[in-house]
Model the fold of this input.
Amino acid sequence: MTILNKVISGEKITPPPIWLMRQAGRYLPEYRKVRSESGSFLNLCYSPKLASEVTLQPIDRFDFDAAIIFADILLIVENLGFNLHFNEKKGPVIENCLINQKQIIKYQKIKNSPLLKIGETVSLTRKKLEKNKSLIGFCGAPWTVATYIINGGTTTSYEKCIQWAHDNYEYFMEMINLLVEISSEYLIMQIEAGADIIKIFDTWSGVLNENDFNDWVIIPTHKIVQNIKTKYPHIKIIGFPKNCGYLYEDYIKKTSVDAVAVDPDLDMLYCKNTLQKLTVIQGNISPEVLRIGGDTMKKDIIKTLDTFGDYSFIMGLGHGVLKDTPVNNVLEFVDIVRKYKRI
Ligand code: 1CP
Done:
C-alpha cells in the first residue's frame, strides 16, 4: 500500500506524506520548457508523453509522496458538446456562454472521446512512478464545472450564476446529472488505467447557501462517490469543497468521501477538534506563505504539524502553488516537514 493510502486508511505516520495542489506548473523551469514546446496548454494535456513527463517533474525534484495527473477539470465539458480553449490572459474560455443562449447538451462517452488520452497519461506515469507513491486521478465537481459552462469561463458574479441556475432549474439539473454520469465514467477510466486515489475539486462550493450546497454539491458528489465505490470499494477519495466553512461537516458526513482537503481560511482548531474527529484531512498552508518562504513559512509548517499530528494527516497547501513561487521555498518546505519530530 502507498504511504498516502495508509494515511487515508487511518494510519498515523510522522512526518506525514506530502503533495501539493498544482505541484506541476509554471513555477518550475522544466515545466515552462515543456509547456512552451507543446504549443498550447490543451496540447500538453492531450499529449500523454509530455503530460506524463510534467506529472513526474515535481516528484523527481522534490520527492513528493504522490503525483497528480497533469490535466484540467474543464476538459470534460467537451464531452457535453461545449468547445473549450485556454486564453493566455483570460484563462479558460467556453464558447456559447449559457447565460446568453441555451445550448442542447450532448453526451459523448469517455470511450469515444479525446479524454482517453488522459488514461494513456495515467498508465504511462504509473509505469514510471515508484510503487510506494500514489497516483492521483481527479475531476471537477459538477457544480464547479457547471459555473464555467454557465458563464463561458471564470465567473465574475457567482450571484448571477446561481440565479441563472434557479431560473433554468430543469436544464441546470439535467446538466448536473450528466456531469455526475460523465465524471464517474471518467474517474473509473482513470482508476482502470492506474490511478489509486481520486480527488474531486469543488473550488466554487463556498458561494452556495446551505440548501443549494446540499442539492448541487453534496448530493452530486455522493452519487459520484457511490458510483466509484460500487465498482472499486478500495479506492480512496479526497473531496475539496473549498471555502464552504462549517458546511465541511455535512459534506464529510453525507458524501462518504474518505478524506477532505481544507482551505487556509478555515480555523485550525475547528479543523482539529471537529473535522479530524470525522475524517482524514489534507492541508492547509497558504500558497502565499509558501511563496514568502523563510521564517514565516517555517513557523506555519511547525504549527500545522503540531496541531494536526495527533491524527492521520496529509501535508499540503490550502490551494494551488502560485506561479511566482521560488523553487527553493518548495525544497525547504519538504525539508522542514521531513525533519519534523513530534515532541
Ligand atoms: O498554461 C498553463 O500552464 C495553464 C495553467 C494551468 C495548469 C497548470 C491550468 C489552467 N490548469 C492547470 C493544471 C491543473 N488544473 C491541474 C493539474 C494537476 C496539479 O494540481 O498539479 C489540476 C488538478 C487543475 C484543476 C483545476 N483547473 C481547478 C480546480 C483546482 C483549483 O485550482 O481551484 C480549476 C478551478 C481549474 C480551472 C482552470 N484551469 C486553468 C485555469 C487558468 C483555470 C481557471 C481558474 C479560475 O477560474 O480561477
Notes: DSSP finds 14 helices and nine strands in the chain. The first strand starts at residue 66 and ends at 68.
